[in-house]
């Protein structure tokens, strides 16, 4: 399949998924048109793509939700070119993706993160994943979450879940704290063996996140919480901030390639505390 067609199909899927996930949030919140839409452009002197980030804050259920779509292209700077596959002959690249972060009012509802992306240099590859960060431990929820991920992965390859769970556990870890960010999930990168199958898996991950996040919110938002629970949530969010600013690849990639700062940092919670 022609690379231009591949890029269009991927870009259209990510943009459609942005609409679907925003609709899902609005349905759960019980209101429509709640997101603030902000369009941005990457290039200053020339067109190098851009994107749109959507933010909703201070709702009945959600404290902050960010749903970000981007499609950017151009040249990698010398500083990061050598770190990116397929850039020996040329520094040119194209990238598109969607990222979602959900921070809820109720401390019993975990923070949830999802992203998928497609990057093209001299060749293309997919990456992404999802993970969950509870403030209050719930082993039953953890087991259910991983069971659903395993079912989803097994539709495509029986080895995916074990491989991508391990990758996620290793990735979402705070070395300076010697602790994981949350209860894990799946994480994958450099998927380039079979474009049609890889793209099908990426779409599966997006739909799985939609279904899982909805189920978690409906289950956990019913639980009553205390001021102490909220303080625990704020402290756990501090760990979330530490990881995103110190270790997250997406944050670093976005800043190093001239992405929109507000869109890149939309994953940060509205309130966090440290002790």
Protein described:
The chain has 275 residues and is an alpha+beta fold. The chain has one domain: Coproporphyrinogen III oxidase, aerobic (oxygen-dependent coproporphyrinogen oxidase, 3-Layer(aba) Sandwich), CATH 3.40.1500. It contains eight helices and nine strands. It has a seven-stranded antiparallel sheet with strand order 1-2-3-4-5-6-9, sandwiched between helices. Helix 1 (3-29) runs parallel beside helix 5 and helix 3 packs antiparallel against helix 5 (195-220). The longest helix has 27 residues, at 3-29.
Task: Note the main attributes of this structure.
single chain, 275 residues, alpha+beta, oxygen-dependent coproporphyrinogen oxidase, 7-stranded antiparallel beta sheet, two-stranded antiparallel ribbon, 43% helix, globular
* Overall residue-averaged pLDDT value: 94
Give the DSSP E fraction (strand runs of 2 or more residues): 25-35%
CATH architecture title: 3-Layer(aba) Sandwich
Q: Could you give the distance between the termini?
A: 54 Å
Can you identify the CATH class? Alpha Beta
Helix share bin: 40-55%
Poorly predicted ranges (pLDDT <50, ≥5 residues)?
A: none
Number of helices: 8
Give Rg in angstroms: 18 Å
CATH topology name, in short, is: oxygen-dependent coproporphyrinogen oxidase
Count of structural domains = 1
CATH homologous superfamily placement: Coproporphyrinogen III oxidase, aerobic
Strand/helix succession: HEEEHEEEHHEEEHHHH
């Amino acid at each position: 399949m022609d690379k231009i067609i591949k890029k269009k199909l991927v870009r259209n899927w990510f943009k459609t998924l942005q609409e679907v996930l925003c609709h899902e949030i609005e349905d759960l919140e019980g209101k429509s048109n709640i997101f603030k839409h902000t369009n941005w452009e990457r290039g200053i002197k020339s067109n190098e793509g851009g994107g749109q980030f959507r933010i909703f804050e201070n709702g009945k259920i959600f404290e902050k939700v960010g749903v970000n779509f981007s499609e950017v292209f151009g040249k990698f700077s010398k500083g990061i070119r050598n770190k990116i596959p397929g850039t020996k002959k040329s520094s040119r690249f194209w990238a598109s993706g969607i990222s979602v972060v959900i921070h809820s009012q109720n401390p019993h509802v975990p923070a949830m993160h999802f992203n998928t992306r497609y990057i093209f240099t001299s060749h293309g590859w997919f990456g992404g994943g999802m993970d969950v960060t509870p403030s209050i431990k719930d082993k039953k929820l953890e087991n259910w979450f991983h069971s659903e991920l395993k079912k989803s992965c097994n539709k495509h390859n029986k080895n995916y879940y074990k491989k991508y769970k391990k990758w996620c556990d290793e990735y979402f870890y705070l070395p300076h704290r010697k602790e994981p960010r949350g209860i894990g999930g799946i994480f994958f990168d450099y998927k380039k063996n079979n474009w049609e199958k890889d793209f099908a898996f990426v779409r599966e991950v997006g739909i799985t996140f939609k279904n899982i996040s909805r189920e978690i919110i409906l289950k956990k938002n019913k639980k009553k919480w205390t001021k102490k629970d909220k303080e625990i949530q704020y402290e756990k969010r501090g760990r979330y901030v530490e990881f995103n600013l110190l270790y997250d690849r997406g944050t670093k990639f976005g800043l190093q390639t001239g992405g929109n700062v507000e869109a890149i940092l939309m994953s940060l919670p509205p309130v966090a505390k440290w002790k």
